[in-house]
Design goal:
16 helices; globular; about 800 residues; about 20% helix
């Protein structure tokens, strides 16, 4: 074969022929749809074929081949001339993304009629179809074919090509050397059309950089609808005076008619919004604006006191006043031209005024949005608002957020398309005492939830034709709290990839929960982020976010920032560079993991120090022969500083994606854990010792509850760590036992007033088999709730 092949001809070594996809190949390379237990992956490996690569969300179908596709410095991203207008911006982005993920900078993206060995080919084929994928495949599906000399991504539409590039990048990230892709063919598509996330920016401003980054993160996990809740206000006015309450409207117009409407503490200009739309388009996300009225409307009443329900001291609009509807139409007339989305959300929930006025607003604004060329979406409120829904406009997508206000059974029976945005399952209210103040329940979502699942007996059938999909939400009710946008990201990141998985391909991952979440940490959030940083550390890692310094080069902190796509590169030094990690305090350490880039160390020491001046060697490496992971285990020691120091001769330069330093093992992880009670069937005792900081145990609402772990055999115990949820213990004892029956107290904790981590260092090691937290008094009216219950020697 020549070095250049004409497009759209594919590699002669392809596992299957071109992915026109009206039929599937047969025999040993037939595409396989996956069961949750991963049995198909094992069967493929037994046949000597490449098992399905790990992607989040998982590929729907895979046919494994033999051999690998390998990227090199001469690889290119190639687009055919007829696809250039739509795909060249993506091709240029992918070229940069590959450089960020692999450390290899491919040749510049090209528009060409031929492809060469090592090239990545992006193709549009509007006629491509797939029987199982159906309409979802036509709109967002793609074919992914990796041969030994070419890799081709083909899709009927831009979104599918984009999603195929995200799969490519994730596969590269999970390759030890970030170079190869297993040969094989995938067909992939989403189970649901709408896979969303709603962010309340009305009650807390999020910077433009954060919004752009979240559009990138959504594309990474194949989520496709970011709804921005653009206005809202404090739930209850101080002293009953709405003039003292916080409110905000986040769009800033130069039109004098709307002077004073934009929030002074942060708003988005037309240029900001255009940048959001550009980013959304590149990353295959629909940016859906929400302007919420007639409740939650204090911002509008503030600038127009005459349209307040009952007067100016209100956060509801007076829908009996004809000027109200006229004003709100003017608001939508002003800002709808900003919005490229075919849909606009107009709120329409929790109104307390007359039902007849509400009905006129609901119908009138839906019709007005359609006159502006937009499909209307609204929050479901009709069960509470009326006993007769027959006169309400049906051409509205309803977000079913609460079964009492308007559940999915009622909404679908009335003929509405719905989105599952159920509050009890999918709402985060950061650091509150209700809904999910510390993030959604990841294990429940992964093991039990699906987009059709609602609480009670309300769930429609899977794939119900009126169910468009699902959307999680962040509501910033606590307007005076001091948390940051990065804090919010920390709550969301725990389950973002899980939600993407369940909305895209359901149970197709074929991995248990803990294995899937470990893969999410490895893939992190993808390349190109400027504001958002990862928050999920490996279990027992103590270097996450720690300060790092180096002998030379720039961005030493990238080695400890938790991102797999940032890296420290040293200068060229005689004898080898060094990089030092400051753990912030003296810690127990026993293991270091290095992720080497293309310029890797061949001979180096891992050194530790208490003060950063006097160093001792913990372990040495003298035979490293390739980039990728290197894990070094040594005798447990206590140190504040850990350093990797080169010991080669000649001039050396290093590239390190990450330096991870680990604590001594948690003796409780995975061990049998019991408790006096469990609040629900999902908040079980084992969650506190599963190594996942996103799962938790919660007890019944009484003071004397306990949780205990059996270490399996007598072990020397020196440190016990409890990571409390908001429902924390105020007074409690830490106890040990040889037989699980007779207990003795080794530490007393009294008058604690905050949630978070409580680390208890025992004066001397205690040899024991059983460790227990015995509650005495709670901090809240809820029970006791722990994310982590760790025991270390």
């Amino acid at each position: 074969m020549s070095k250049r092949s004409p497009l759209p001809r594919l590699s002669r070594r392809s596992v299957v022929t071109a992915m026109a996809a009206t039929t599937l190949p047969v025999g040993p390379t037939a595409l396989t749809a996956y069961a949750a237990d991963g049995s198909e992956d094992r069967g493929m490996a037994e046949q000597g074929l490449n098992p399905r690569p790990v992607v989040a969300p998982a590929l729907q179908e895979w046919a494994g081949g033999t051999g690998t596709f390998r990227l090199t410095g001469s690889s290119r991203v190639v687009v055919a001339p007829e696809d250039a207008r739509q795909l060249m911006p993506l091709a240029r982005q992918l070229t940069q993304d590959i450089a960020d993920v692999t450390g290899i900078r491919p040749a510049a993206a090209r528009v060409t009629g031929s492809a060469g060995e090592g090239d990545v080919v992006l193709r549009l084929d509007p006629n491509a179809r797939h029987d199982r994928g159906g309409e979802r495949y036509r709109q967002e599906g793609y074919a992914f074919e990796a041969g030994e000399d070419l890799l081709t991504i083909t899709a009927p539409a831009y979104s599918g090509v984009y999603y195929g590039t995200r799969s490519l990048l994730q596969i590269l990230l999970r390759d030890e050397q970030r170079r190869t892709v297993p040969a094989g063919t995938a067909q992939d598509w989403p189970d649901y059309a709408l896979r969303g996330f709603m962010l309340d920016v009305g009650r807390r401003f999020f910077t433009p950089g954060f919004i752009r980054d979240y559009l990138r993160v959504m594309g990474w996990f194949k989520l496709n609808d970011l709804q921005l809740h653009l206005n809202d206000n404090e739930i209850r006015p101080p002293e009953g005076d709405w003039s003292k309450a916080y409110d905000a409207f986040r769009l800033r117009s130069d039109n004098p008619a709307f002077e004073g409407l934009a929030a002074p503490d942060g708003s988005y200009s037309r240029a900001d919004w255009d940048s959001f739309e550009d980013t959304a388009a590149l990353h295959a996300v629909q940016l859906t604006p929400e302007i919420d009225a007639p409740a939650h409307a204090r911002s509008f009443v503030r600038v127009r006191p005459d349209i307040g329900l009952g007067g100016a001291n209100s956060d509801h609009l007076d829908l009996g006043n004809p000027d109200t509807m006229a004003f709100m139409k003017e608001v939508f007339n002003e800002f709808t031209p900003w919005f490229r989305s075919p849909e606009v959300h107009y709120g329409a929930d929790e109104y307390t005024g007359p039902e007849s006025h509400y009905r006129a607003y609901f119908n009138g604004m839906a019709a007005h949005l359609r006159s502006l060329g937009k499909h209307p979406r609204a929050w479901g409120s009709l069960t509470e608002m009326t006993g007769d829904t027959s006169t309400y406009d049906r051409d509205v997508t309803i977000h079913s957020w609460n079964n009492g206000w308007y559940g999915p059974r009622a909404a679908t029976s009335d003929g509405y398309e719905i989105v599952n945005t159920n509050d009890s399952l999918l709402y985060i209210v950061p650091f509150a005492t209700y809904y999910h103040p510390h993030g959604l329940d990841g294990r429940y979502l992964y093991d039990t939830w699906a987009p059709h699942v609602f609480p009670g007996q309300e769930s429609p059938t899977p794939g119900h034709p009126q169910l468009r999909g699902a959307m999680s939400a962040v509501w910033n009710d606590l307007v005076h709290a001091t948390y940051t946008q990065q804090d919010v990201h920390g709550l969301v990141e725990k389950t973002f990839g899980i939600l993407g998985q369940k909305m895209w391909s359901g149970t197709a991952a074929g991995l248990p929960y803990t294995a899937f979440t470990a893969q999410l940490r490895r893939g992190a959030l993808g390349p190109g982020l400027a504001t958002v940083t990862p928050t999920l550390a490996e279990p027992e890692q103590v270097s996450f976010g720690a300060a790092a310094t180096a002998s030379s080069g720039t961005h030493a902190g990238y080695a400890t920032d938790g991102s797999p796509v940032t890296r420290w590169t040293s200068g060229t030094e005689q004898g080898g560079p060094w990089l030092r990690v400051d753990l912030g305090q003296v810690r127990d350490v026993q293991r270091v993991r290095l992720d080497w880039g293309p310029e890797y160390g061949r001979a180096y020491d891992i050194e530790v120090s208490d003060d950063g001046d006097a160093w001792r060697t913990a372990v040495s490496r003298r035979d490293r022969s390739r980039p990728g992971w290197d894990e070094l285990v040594f005798e447990a020691t206590r140190a504040r500083f850990v350093r990797v120091r080169g010991r080669e001769t000649g001039k050396i330069r290093w590239t390190l994606w990450s330096v991870q330093v680990f604590d001594i093992p948690d003796l409780a992880r995975g061990r049998t854990t019991t408790a006096s009670s469990e609040e629900t069937a999902t908040l079980v005792a084992a969650n506190a010792t599963d190594g996942d900081p996103g799962t938790r145990w919660a007890s019944k609402y009484t003071d004397s509850e306990w949780i205990a772990v059996d270490l399996g055999a007598p072990q020397p115990v020196r440190r016990i760590e409890l990571d409390w949820e908001a429902a924390a213990g105020r007074d409690y004892d830490l106890q040990v036992s040889d037989d699980g029956t007779q207990w003795r107290t080794v530490a007393e904790r009294r008058a604690r007033t905050a949630a978070g981590v409580d680390t208890v260092e025992l004066p001397e090691p205690v040899t024991t088999r059983h460790v227990r937290m015995q509650g005495i008094k709670r901090q809240t009216t809820y029970g006791y709730s722990l994310y982590r219950f760790e025991v270390r020697g």
